[in-house]
Amino acid sequence: MNNSTSLRVRLPVLVLLMEVVFLGLFAGFVTYDDNANAKFQNNETNPMDNSLYRDYPFFADVQVMIFVGFGCLLAFLRLYGFSGMVFNFLTATFTIQWAILMQGYFQFYSDGKIHLGVINLLNAEFACAVVLISFGAVLGKTSPVQLLVMALLEVPIFALTEWAVLKYLKINDAGGSILIHLFACYFGLGVTFVLYRPSLNDGHVKEVTSYQSDILSLMGTLFLWVFWPSFNSALTLKGDDQHRAVLHTFIGLSSSTMTAFALSAVFNKRGKLTMADIQNVTLAGGVTVGASVDMMISPAAAYALGIMGCTACFMGYRYLTPFLARHFRIQDQCGIHNLHGLTGLISCTAGICAILMANEETYGPSMYQIFSHRAPMEGDPKLLELQQLIPGLMPGLGRTAKEQAVYQVAAIFSTIGAAAVGGVLTGFALKLPCLATPSDEFCFDDELFFDVPSDFEFTQLLDDIEIFIMG
Q1: pLDDT digits over 303-347, tens only?
Q2: What gap in Å lies between CA 327 and CA 308, rounded to an integer?
Q3: CA-to-CA distance for 369 and 389, rounded, in angstroms?
Q4: DSSP letter at 9?
Q5: How confident is the model at residue 108 (pLDDT cuts 50, 70, 90)?
Q6: Which residues pair with 31 in a beta bridge?
Q7: What is the dihedral of CA 365, 371, 372, 377, to 10 degrees?
Q8: Mean pLDDT, the chain, as a whole number?
Q9: What was the pLDDT predicted at 404?
Q10: Are strands 30-32 and 114-116 parallel, antiparallel or unpaired?
Q11: What is the pLDDT of residue 456?
């Protein structure tokens, strides 16, 4: 073990330091929300009056996506399975704790406390998904210390961006197309731009998959596929909005899956299926319907969005990823620009079109719940009429459809800008020599950071023989 990559001091010092900081912050600033506080809840409380019963099923589903889905999906490299899954586990656990504090910082209650409940954990998991998506751009080329530092810096930048966009631009983003997928993508691309390794542009001898690693990665895809409707619908309004979100996500995923199989066979010179296409491109529809997932776009539109997203994602993997690596110093290891960037842009465009076409004839009075910023302002007589139809309807900003669309566009550009700048700055921080950066030779290799089992050397030997025979 080279001292420059030894974790013996670096990882424990960073982890223990952050645990002490987290413990102090939790002790000083975190308390229970009303749904978890014994003063306001008891065993006779109606279950549906407690957010646990409304939100925990979605929290559990997203948790499976974070720890199992992402973990298995990132284990696709033959000699990097331990790292793909374990670094995901470590980074996700750290990120959720940090996100609770950072997102809560921008939501302080009058008593100066962060009121913790299941909904806060769910929001923290979405922040965690942002970090794990960005992680995909630098998979195999970073140490666990670098990944923790990346999460440490990305979460506050994300929390600030999220707070500013929602507070001042006030957008519709039910499936997180802007604040999750676009932010994560361009932050990760900013990091990998700074961490560019010229010698990896022509590939790496260990940058290969195996029969077992491909199966494990496909299991991750299946977990993500099955639970994606919960991801897209978790933060939508309960009732028919959430119902539509589930339906649209399933339809989009289904059409993108069918399209992925067709494209994979057509573009394979031998007319066979490519596992990388099945593992990644099939998920594109879940992202593409995100921005309009709770709107009245029609099942046919969701189906078409799945096809469009899948096609863009597939072509991105095939042509755009190598182009960016050769000409723009962007080595996108897992192709996050294809699965989250391109599809996120398509999703945002579809969402803007849906906003422009939304009217009371299609939505009825509930339009002012889904598009809450288009509701009449306080004092407007129409607000009183709507409140008689929908008791509890809150005053809005009185925006027109065109005005709301302009704010959506502003949110897209501001989010991409903040993410890219934050990613570049974080990339420079990750270049510090004390963060156990792996050399080019030991990229994509579990042996650098793990005690590996005895058959690991045999696996490496098989790789060497295969490389010798092929080359």
Answers
A1: 999 999 999 999 999 999 999 999 999 999 999 999 999 999 999
A2: 26
A3: 12
A4: T
A5: confident
A6: 115
A7: -70
A8: 93
A9: 97
A10: parallel
A11: 74
Whether residue 280 contacts residue 133, with contact meaning beta carbons closer than 8 Å, is answered with no
H helices of 65-180, where? 70-73, 81-105, 118-135, 144-164
Q: Mean pLDDT over residues 383-388, rounded?
A: 93
Residue 118, number of CB atoms within 10 A of its CB: 21
Separation between Cα atoms, residue 123 and residue 158, nearest integer Å: 12
What domains are defined for the chain? 3-41+48-470 (1.10.3430.10)
Measuring CA to CA, which residue among 251, 279, 408, 259 is closest to residue 345? Answer: 408
Q: 214, 139, 211: which is closest to 445 by C-alpha? A: 139
Closest CA to 33 of 129, 111, 127, 125: 111
- Residue 386 is which amino acid? L
CA distance 126 to 418: 18
| Pick from 134, 100, 135, 94: nearest CA to 118 | 100
Amino acid at position 70, single letter:
F
Residue with tokens 């590996």: 452
Lookup: tokens for 53? 């019963």
DSSP string, 24-84: HHHHHHEEE-TTT-TTT--TTS-GGGSHHHHHHHHHHHHHHIIIIIHHHHTT-STT-HHHH
pLDDT at position 467 over 60: no
Given a cut of 60, is residue 468 above it in pLDDT?
A: no
DSSP codes, 207-230:
----HHHHHHHHHHHHHHHHHHHH
Given this model, what pLDDT does residue 202 score? 86
Rounded Cα–Cα distance for residues 184 and 367 (Å): 30
DSSP letter assigned to residue 397:
-
Torsion of CA 282, 181, 118, 230, to 10 degrees: -30
Over the stretch 341-369, which tens digit does the pLDDT of each residue have? 999 999 999 999 999 999 999 999 999 99
- What's the token pair of residue 186? 């361009």
Model confidence pLDDT, tens digit, residues 15-68: 999 999 999 999 999 999 988 888 887 666 677 778 888 899 999 999 999 999
Neighbour count for residue 16 (Cβ, 10 Å): 10
Task: Decide: 217 and 77 in contact? Cβ < 8 Å.
Answer: no
CB atoms within 10 A of CB 189: 25
Claim: this prediction has a pTM higher than 0.85: yes
Alpha helices in 316-400 (DSSP H): 321-328, 336, 343-357, 360-363, 367-370, 381-389
